[in-house]
Structure formats: C-alpha cells, structure tokens
User: What shape does this take?
Amino acid sequence: MFKKNENNIRVGEFETSHGIIKTPFFMPIATKGAVKTISTRDLDNLGAQILLSNTYHLML
Assistant: This one.
C-alpha cells in the first residue's frame, strides 16, 4: 500500500513473515560480511528495518 503523506512524500508499507516494513527505509547491504562486526543494537539504532545479506559470506 502506497500513499503520499502531508509533505507529499510517497510512503508505504509491506508485510513479511517477520513483520511490517515501512518505506522508504534504510537497508544496509551486508554482502561479503560488511556488517559482520556491527551489533544488532547498532543496526537498530541506525534505523535498519531490513538487511540484505548472503549467508555464505557471513560464515567466512
């Protein structure tokens, strides 16, 4: 569902099996373990609602 808010900014949300994600959102790209050393608390403080990763790289 997408709509424009009071500032005429297009916003929306979509539901996944893990919860609702509001758009627009900040999505760190975690390929090659780029966020491997960042705690979940730090990611939460950054406002990350979703993380794009490759599990192979996170195991290295």
